[in-house]
Amino acid sequence: MSSLSTASTSSTTTFTDTELTEVKRDFQSATELYRKNLASTTKLPALQSQIADLETEQSQPDFWDEANTSRAAIVNAQVSTATRLLTRIQAWQEWHGDAQAALEILSQLASEERAMLLDEFRSAIARLREDSDRFELELLLSGPYDHAPARLLLTAGAGGTEANDWVGDLKRMYQRHCEAMGLSCVVQDEQAGEAVGYKSVELLVSGDNAYGWLQGEKGAHRMVRLSPFNANNKRQTTFAGVDVAPDILNQDDDAYWNTIDVPESELEITTMRAGGKGGQNVNKVNSAVRIKHLPSGLQVKCAQERSQSMNKNIALKRLKAQLLAIVQEQRVAEIKEIRGDMVEASWGAQIRNYVFHPYKMVKDQRTGWETSNVQAFMDGDLLEECIGSFLRHKAEEQRKEQIANE
């Protein structure tokens, strides 16, 4: 037993035989999760052997040579992934061992003494269950772009000042959620509202499976509340749109992007001055670029560089990345098959209601998941649960579709 103590003073209540039966049931459930986790991943000896082989390759004198850069990047990523998995498996073993040891001691003690170990048992079980749930969701993120960073574009809908304020609230929600999930969330661009909030905000989210985790957030987010910007404090409904695209621009090979054919005749390219935080123009020349894909209606904007040609190149790659993602999601063979109604169905559907008045509720329209704790949701605390529900729902729908097509 690695960290389990044999006594605790945090609980003094009598532990009944009925409660002991419930604890045994909890342990059995956790054991099933533990075994399911182990069955879903690389066996421990094989994983340790894999890490040893990769580290041996890293130790070779020519590993860091410039000519070996591509291979070095692959090996380093594989070592990092395998090491994280090894650490995770060892944590599962520790938590399961702690719970098992506590249960054995609990079974041997008199009922009035059993409460001493209950807190530590429950802590071990809770950690195992929590990480098992996350691991289950991560197994669902197996799409070709799920591992990539994600670009979120939040755009105010109809509603003027109210809609701009709503975009600000969503920006904060995603920032808080990313912080809790260990994801990096960086503001790439923002256009301030005339009074409060933002007309639009672009966020770059990086970390493990960032795009796979957040892709389900795309769509319309509807909010209902008593508006503080309405002179009569009337109830008002407003919307914000959230677009999510994989950021696969680390594909620096221009030859790769050139193979993705998007005819220039299908593009509408406009230039403008780059806007900084607060809405001010930070460049006196038209360096920012917006590209619209006419067949689908998709639009991207880039203003991160001072050079118009560089921004155009980046914007075109971002547009192609979005089109590639839709090809994957909609299961079409080529980009040229993407139609505007596909984009509307995939990117523009209303996905979630946020009601602050006359009652409090956040409800996901796709899964039925809901909570009355609106403030905790807006603080980013419950978004993980909501996204997890969507990913499981999506996987089940895909499973049903696969069975129907067999």
Question: Can you describe this structure?
Answer:
Mean pLDDT is 82; it is low at 1-13, 277-281 and 338-347. This protein has 3 domains: 17-140, Up-down Bundle (Methane Monooxygenase Hydroxylase, Chain G, domain 1), CATH 1.20.58; 150-252 and 341-405, Alpha-Beta Plaits (2-Layer Sandwich); 261-337, 2-Layer Sandwich (Double Stranded RNA Binding Domain). α1 runs parallel beside α4. 27% of the residues are buried. Strands 2-3-1-5-4-9-10-11 form an 8-stranded mixed beta sheet. It starts with 16 loop residues before the first helix and ends with a helix. It has helices at residues 17-39, 44-58, 69-108, 118-140, 161-181, 210-214, 254-258, 308-330, 340-347, 374-378, 383-405, and strands spanning 150-156, 184-192, 198-206, 219-226, 235-246, 267-272, 288-293, 299-302, 350-355, 361-364, 370-371. 47% of the residues lie in helices and 18% in strands. The chain has 406 residues and is an alpha+beta fold.
Relevant terms:
Alpha-Beta Plaits, 406 residues, eight-stranded mixed sheet, three-stranded antiparallel sheet, Double Stranded RNA Binding Domain, 11 strands, alpha+beta, 3 domains, single chain, disordered N terminus, Methane Monooxygenase Hydroxylase, Chain G, domain 1, globular
